[in-house]
Design brief:
Layout (H helix, E strand, L loop, with lengths): L1 H28 L13 E4 L4 H7 L5 H6 L3 E5 L8 H10 L3 E6 L2 H6 L1 H11 L3 E4 L10 H20 L3 E5 L14 H8 L5 E6 L1 H4 L5 H7 L4 E6 L1 E2 L16 E2 L8 H11 L3 E4 L6 H13 L4
Length: 298
């Protein structure tokens, strides 16, 4: 009787070990969030997408990011939507969310560079960027050249401390310039490739009438990050750099040809991708966008 009981216990233990092993294998074989056999990512989340939820509920709003399976995030350097820097840092740590990049204000980075470096180091980000350069309308050559000069200055200072500077396009930079090029081309050409890299926002590339694929291929050594965002079908863009947030739709349902965009991005070596959803239905749309990305083929 004791022998049979021992046999039963050994068998149960053996089965349990097999189940644990199988479970571990399945988990290790699972694709990271938002990736597929064609698209390898990695895909993170722009925390700005949850700004309203964080303002209302505090750090607990970040549970959503963890529940969706995100590991990487892009954050704000100065603004944490009601949380202190230490609270944001701890909230991310508790949820296993790793801040890769951070957006900061143009003037802040230019005039308080040392402070920005200190904050970036504390948060553990190695990429620091600008998403909007203050300017007068119409955006013109003189302003572009001044911005390029400032970007080179910021980028050099950050690079000396091991941080890569980047600029996130927002649409207004695509004013026609010369020989069929735009002021964005001038900005790229007048900035140092070592000190200034770029983050393509797909929606803010399509909205002003540009082709993301062609732009990626035109400057293959400058794009390192990407915002995954889609523009509602039927929406006519312009050079304002702004549109109603209702025009920010689930990936794959808008105007972007994401199979072509992601294929080109991978080919030139974009390092990190972040979903940014500014819609009023962010909690509903992000899971749908992740589902779309997980099934993408090219």
């Amino acid at each position: 009787m004791k022998f049979k009981l021992l046999q039963s216990c050994v068998l149960s233990l053996f089965v349990s070990l097999i189940l644990v092993s199988v479970s571990a294998t399945v988990l290790s074989a699972a694709e990271p969030v938002g990736t597929s056999k064609s698209f390898r990512g990695p895909v993170g989340l722009v925390v700005y997408s949850l700004r309203d939820q964080i303002k209302e509920n505090g750090a607990v709003a970040l549970d959503f990011a963890k529940e969706q399976g995100f590991v990487e995030v892009e954050i704000g350097l100065e603004n944490h939507y009601g949380l202190t820097q230490e609270q944001m840092k701890e909230a991310l740590k508790q949820r296993g969310l790793k801040p890769i990049g951070a957006h900061a204000g143009y003037d802040f980075l230019l005039k308080q560079t040392d402070k920005a470096i200190e904050m970036a180091n504390d948060l553990g980000v190695r990429y620091v960027g600008v998403a909007w350069a203050p300017h007068k309308k119409p955006f013109d050559e003189a302003q572009t050249l001044k911005i390029a000069e400032d970007f080179n200055t910021i980028g050099k200072r950050l690079k000396e401390k091991g941080i890569q500077f980047y600029y996130h396009n927002h649409g207004y930079e695509f004013q026609p310039y010369k020989n069929g090029e735009t002021l964005f081309d001038l900005l790229v050409q007048k900035t140092d490739a070592e000190f200034v890299k770029f983050e393509m926002d797909v929606m803010w590339t399509i909205f002003p009438g540009q082709d993301p694929v062609q732009l990626l291929k035109k400057y293959p050594n400058r794009w390192i990050l990407m915002h995954l965002k889609d523009l509602a079908k039927g929406v006519e863009g312009n050079l304002s750099g702004g549109t109603d947030t209702k025009n920010d739709v689930v990936l794959g349902t808008g105007q972007a040809d994401y199979p072509a965009v992601l294929k080109a991005a991978q080919e030139i070596g974009v390092k990190h991708y972040f979903i940014e959803d500014e819609s009023r239905d962010v909690l509903k749309q992000i899971p749908q966008s992740l589902k779309y990305l997980s099934g993408i083929e090219f």
